[in-house]
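Hi U.,

Before I forget, here's the chain from the pilot set. I'm dumping it here mostly so it's searchable later in email.
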Amino acid sequence: MNLKHIAAAKRLLAHWSPTRLDHLLEESEIKMSRALEYIMPNNIKVTSVQLSLRAEASFKECISMIVDHLNEAVGEGSQLIVFPEYIGLLPLLSSPTLFDLCYQFSEDLLNREEQAIQDGLRFYSKYLAQPLLESYCRFFSLLAIKSSIYILAGTNIVKTREGLVNRAFLFDPDGNIILQQDKLHLSPQEKLCGLIAGKEIVTAQTKLCRVSVLTGTDQRVFEAASAAHLRGAQLLLCPSAFCSSHSSDYFQSCAFMRCQEQPVFAVSSWLTGDFMDLPFRAISGIYAPFSASKMDNGVIVQTERPSGNACLTARIDLERLGQDPDLYISDLNPIVEEMARKEYGLARQIQVAQQTDEEES
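Structure:
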């Protein structure tokens, strides 16, 4: 890395300094929620945010992208909002020089240029990791205080003594971090970067319910959701990043499926958009067990535009988690249903010959 990149990092951190953020948020119109003053287990409101990113965004655009979705959620009475994975790296978009560096880093990942990858990670660890983490925590802490709701602030790449981890942070309405969860199951790209996987599932008790975080590929693993449920989690917060698959079957194997295996609700938030010259599509949503959703399909609400911004707010009823599911109507297979209808219709057409008195004797 040359002096140009170091200078760009210093300029970026000056823009995103805690003092600058304090001043900007003081000027921003952030709605104050009163939803946490009236909490009922059968009327908890949660929000999933799907963000569509583009190549470059100014400092103010990055801030307004978060604040606008937060205000929309508060306006709809939300008590908890979930932002997508890697949202802590959003400041890098506001620097053209560092964005170009990120673009080159993505090319190195695709080409498996190990030396170039390690150089990029050393630059991040030395010049960006700690200052970005401080700004990230300060920013979302102030947002939680000003909006008075719980905020799952996506994830950030955090430097630890062991190495870099992909860590999720949950802020309470007082601005405190009440849960930190390191990603357990890393993607191939994260493994190539040398990120360190987390070791355990953590839960936190909120005023709403007990929650746990499954980041990215963690939500595709049965054992992760099972461990969260065994630790008392009633709500899974699932921040995720870009997905190269355009199949809805892939997204059904994520948070949606975990709700059918465990009696839990889930809020899934994804990054999407045409980014780094690649089109990424996503389906964000709020999910429930079949028996706890109105249409008996496990979907409370989900995005209609897989490439656009979305802010989905819905009510969840924790009291319905205690109801035993009806296995005969919970998981209907359309193909099997059609076969059954045909067989039943065929069976009704078959004439059964009546036995005569002689045959009976």
